[in-house]
Amino acid sequence: MLSAAAADRNKGHILAVLRESVNTGKPLQALEIASGTGQHVIHFAQALRNIIWQPSEYDRQTLASIEAYRAGYPMNNVKPAIHLDVSLPHQYWGGIQPESFDLVVNINMIHISPMACTEGLFRGAGAVLKPRGLLLTYGPYAVNGQITPQSNVDFNYSLRQSLRDLSSFLHKYMSSHECMLIKYVDMPANNKCLLFRKESVV
């Protein structure tokens, strides 16, 4: 089991947003894209038992970590992790069918991955979400070209200036995909949760 300190710090805060945003009273299907170590999906699955979780990951080492967490915390609402390259069309996402998920979750991927991954995330979410389904993304963003605080300025420099600007990011993806922003939540450590709803059918 791999352990990421950031995942331990933010999993409770993200769970709080999920609790406020999804129906906890009926069975749901969720896809986590770029699940990382597996800490998030296990934490969410323990708290939201009505949701069947499908973890996924591109990196083979972290895929093994997800499976170690599944073995260590056995639950019937977490499926085996699948290998998923989000930059590819959804037809290559391990057999996932169109309109099969109520929720797609993506944590701390957008700012550390190539733009093709962000484009694939929104394009793919628009395909695999059911109508009115939700996409939740979490991470640091610039706002109108401004990055705060200094820790995020330094982080952006270390990433070769790859923090997505929220304004241009939303304009681009809201105008070209089915997922429309319905809410954003300021989070601890200068991160944000963005919630999008699929507003049209595939």
Automatic annotation (TrEMBL):
Signal sequence coordinates: none
Pfam families: DUF938
Entry's transmembrane regions: none
InterPro entries, per the entry: DUF938, SAM-dependent_MTases_sf
Origin superkingdom: Eukaryota
Family from the record: Belongs to the UPF0585 family.
PANTHER family named in the record: METHYLTRANSFERASE-LIKE 26 (PTHR20974:SF2), UPF0585 PROTEIN CG18661 (PTHR20974)
Protein name: Methyltransferase-like 26
Protein source organism: Monopterus albus (Swamp eel)
